[in-house]
Design goal:
alpha+beta, Creatine Amidinohydrolase, six-stranded mixed β-sheet, 14% strand
């Protein structure tokens, strides 16, 4: 099916689910803006613009101040903000594949866009232009309706899946270029530059700042420094790409020939663990159970390599695996890299908080067909997390000499993006980046 047909089916699903959400929450219409630009405090420079995610869910048109009006049984109305401006490039709309799904009109100023909106009785508003929305008589960002809309974003249409897969192809190409640069002795900055050049984007067009971490920096989970160190012995790279507003999110850990062979063996072991976790995914499995399985497998790997002196069940029960694997196993993926509704029990927004022993778990949902999420187990040597165990009652369960010898290697994370099917799942990443 061509892209335009995929989008029309996607738009039909958006209309159906919006009508259901409006009926459940007592509104007659929905207005979504693409949002306004954020200007840095006491400055005249703007932050890179990110559209309101719910606007992007309906329409891939770039830029601020567009307005979308959704009413039951009617074609969505799109008011495009199209100023005349000699400071910044203004591209014509042209004939994009998605345009046929909307009634489109143009406004030359922000004020004109909102004036064209007119009166929309009993309407909710989603976006960050709350003052304008309130002045127009709209109810800004009602919690229950927002929860309903968040929930529907968890189930990807074929159009959304196509966007994520295209973003995966780009991300995989970038990872291959980054790996080649690393093995050639490049610095973190040079590796990052090889990545973005291959993807063909500017830094702010990435779905999130790339993580390119050599050696011990791989133990900083969200490391964003780009140092000049060359010829690293390990590299952890976490970087994605973006297509029509949808992201891929891929992580690999690469070892150079001069890396400590014991750490290289751990990386190979984590590769096996990650693949097994991906294969375990199926509808009807609580994501928390998959996360727990990840801890058991990582504890087994630590025992196998002599780092922990405890069986996996005991190590997980006593929290001995947590300093090595302190984050959640993954998260929903889509328009936002850490996509919404991961901690909702249902469309009414009832919260489903993570268990106390795993506070950073980003999804506590049941795994269901149509979801796209990441599976990204990690194993790190983080001194601040390991320090308490050096003095507590479990200190003899660790080989501290080995821990200290491996700490300069940083950490390991391997991440793929999975689409859940009716019976199991499909790995969107491995087809394009096998290892």
């Amino acid at each position: 099916m061509d892209l335009a047909s995929l989008f029309q089916a996607h738009l039909g699903e958006r209309q159906r689910s919006a009508e259901e959400a409006l009926a459940r929450t007592g509104f007659d219409a929905l207005v979504i803006s693409s949002g306004e630009v954020h200007t840095y405090f006491a400055d005249d420079q703007d932050a890179p613009f990110h559209p309101t995610p719910h606007f992007a869910h309906w329409c891939p048109m770039a830029g601020p101040h567009h307005l979308l009006v959704v009413r039951p049984g009617k074609t969505p109305r799109l008011i495009r903000y199209a100023p005349e401006d000699f400071w910044y490039e203004q591209l014509p709309l042209g004939s994009p594949f998605w345009a046929g799904g909307f009634e489109i009109e143009e406004a030359g100023t922000v004020e004109d866009a909102w004036a064209r909106l007119g009166s929309v009785p009993r309407a909710a508003y989603i976006g960050n232009e709350s003052d304008r929305a309130a002045a127009a008589g709209l109810e800004p960002n009602p919690a229950l309706l927002t929860a309903h809309l968040d929930w529907t974003r968890s189930y990807k249409t074929d159009y959304e899946l196509q966007c994520i897969e295209e973003a995966t192809v780009l991300g995989a190409r970038g990872h291959l270029a980054a790996k080649a640069a690393f093995l050639a002795g490049a610095s973190e900055l040079e590796i990052h530059q090889a990545y973005v050049q291959t993807v063909g984007c500017l830094d702010h067009e990435l779905p999130y700042p790339s993580i390119v971490a050599l050696n011990e920096k791989g133990a900083t989970l969200h490391y964003e420094g780009k140092r000049g160190l060359k010829k690293g012995f390990t590299m952890l790279i976490d970087a994605g790409a973006q297509v029509r507003g949808y992201a891929s999110d891929i992580t690999r850990t690469i070892t150079a020939p001069h890396c400590d062979s014991r750490f290289a063996a751990l990386v190979a072991g984590m590769e096996k663990v990650q693949r097994e976790l991906c294969e375990a995914v199926h509808p009807g499995m609580p994501y928390g159970d998959l996360h727990h399985l990840g801890h058991l497998k990582i504890a087994g790997l630590l025992q196998e390599h002599g780092i922990l002196k405890a069986a996996p069940d005991e190590a997980v029960e006593k929290g001995l695996s947590r300093p090595f694997f302190p984050h959640g196993l993954g998260h929903h993926l889509g328009i936002q890299v850490h996509d919404v509704a991961g901690r909702q029990l249902g469309p009414d927004g009832t919260p489903a908080p993570p268990p106390p022993q795993h506070p950073f778990l980003r999804t506590t949902r049941m795994i269901e067909a149509g979801q796209v999420f990441t599976v990204e187990p990690g194993l790190y040597f983080i001194p601040m997390l390991l320090r308490p165990f050096r003095e507590n009652e479990h200190r003899d369960r660790f080989d501290w000499a080995l821990v200290d010898e491996l700490t300069p290697c940083g950490g390991i994370r391997i991440e793929d993006n999975l689409f859940v099917t009716g019976a199991s799942s499909r790995n969107l990443t491995r087809k394009h980046l096998p290892n």
